[in-house]
């Protein structure tokens, strides 16, 4: 129901009714009526409130549907024809970043694309049909986790990114399930949010051991501007640079 969803998002954002009313430029009385189902919103009002709540496009669509309206933004699959242009742009960036690793991630940290250097780093020759998840690779026991020399620092940073994803997309989003999943792995419970070794650093390097040789990387994250599709907004390209 719209009123329940609106109230939950407002609480998650830590906003009072007065604060949200001011941000959305509506009267507190009208907002109170919307949250108590004594008034029904227009689609324009739903989008105004969603913007004031800083909701991602996927969650704005969800709020519209809860109010009885059709989604306003596209929500296409990565391999759909509608995403061809974005997919080609991402692949161009991956190729241009070679010989260094680069990967394309969705909001839940599933790996959608990777260049050859990235696949070599995670130990696969090609991406499998069932998508790999970057958080699972970092946290689950296996070759990737064992290869990360400064695992505690990297894992703490990844936990921060996962928590921020849940804050942004909500507790029902796929990223919340990923966070719940990785929390079960050994060594996660004792992670510090600010590992001692990272204090005073401007960039957190990723130290990786491959074939007995240590490499150091820092990463940059690229996203696409002015997206009108939920997935397009969520896509990030993570590029590894030699430190």
Helix content: 40-55%
Q: How much is the average pLDDT? A: 93
Subunit organisation of the chains: single chain
Overall shape: elongated
Residue ranges: pLDDT <50 for 5 or more in a row?
none
CATH architecture of the largest domain: 2-Layer Sandwich
Integer-rounded radius of gyration: 20 Å
State the helix count.
12
CATH topology of the largest domain: Beta-Lactamase
Structural class: alpha+beta
Describe this structure in words.
The protein folds into 2 domains: 2-66, lambda repressor-like DNA-binding domains (434 Repressor (Amino-terminal Domain), Orthogonal Bundle), CATH 1.10.260; 82-242, 2-Layer Sandwich (Beta-Lactamase), CATH 3.30.450.180. 46% of the residues lie in helices and 13% in strands. The chain has 12 helices and 5 strands. The chain has helices spanning 2-12, 17-24, 28-35, 43-52, 57-66, 84-97, 116-122, 134-139, 143-147, 151-169, 174-182, 230-234; strands at 102-105, 111-114, 206-210, 213-223, 236-242. The model has no long low-confidence stretch (mean pLDDT 93). Residues 6-60 form the HTH cro/C1-type domain. InterPro entries: Cro/C1-type_HTH, Lambda_DNA-bd_dom_sf, MLTR_LBD. It comes from Devosia riboflavina. GO terms for molecular function: DNA binding.
